[in-house]
Amino acid sequence: MKRKGIFDLNQLNTRENRRMIKKLGWPGAVLVLAIAAVAYFFADDESDTGDYTLGEFHEVTVDQFIDGDTTRFNFNGSSESFRYLIIDTPEIRTDSGTPEPYAVEAGDRVRELLIGADTIEVEFDVGPMTDNYDRYLAYIYADGEMVNETLVREGLATVRYANPPNTSHLDVLEEAEAAAQEENAGLWSE
């Protein structure tokens, strides 16, 4: 989901462009570049909230399980990667090749919750819809139960990456984390 400009900046130094600069002269070429820059910066940015608002649920289906906090869903007719908002699960893929403690359990629990669900929905927050890796940022629900919260409450995820304004359900997740800590659940048993 990269921002699309009017032309590819890598193509600026072509013979055709050099001819255009000679024809227009340097003032004309600067004007063309200024117009292109303005158009680029005012182009639609796909990381905004678009037509989606907090509290709206969008039904999806699972395409691929990645790990405990990332899943590919069929959304609006295409396979898209979703990062679960405000949580972090241990990493399955590490440099050592050995998953971090509870990484496999977190991934298995997500599979269990989503495969067993009649309805899977995503809810976007009020801030950016995507992260730096072009993954959608959302709260994930299985039959109305927030998966993000379940993972935290069971000690399979921690509350992290609470980046305003995408923090509408932060209080719910912090309460779930406090309960998991008190019960020494999962990650908190170590």
From TrEMBL:
Keywords: Endonuclease, Hydrolase, Membrane, Nuclease, Transmembrane, Transmembrane helix
Organism (species): Lacicoccus alkaliphilus DSM 16010
Database matches in InterPro entries: SNase_OB-fold_sf, Staphylococal_nuclease_OB-fold
Ranges that cross the membrane: 24-43
SMART domains according to UniProt: SNc
GO molecular function, one term: endonuclease activity
Every TNase-like domain range: 56-190
Record protein name field: Micrococcal nuclease
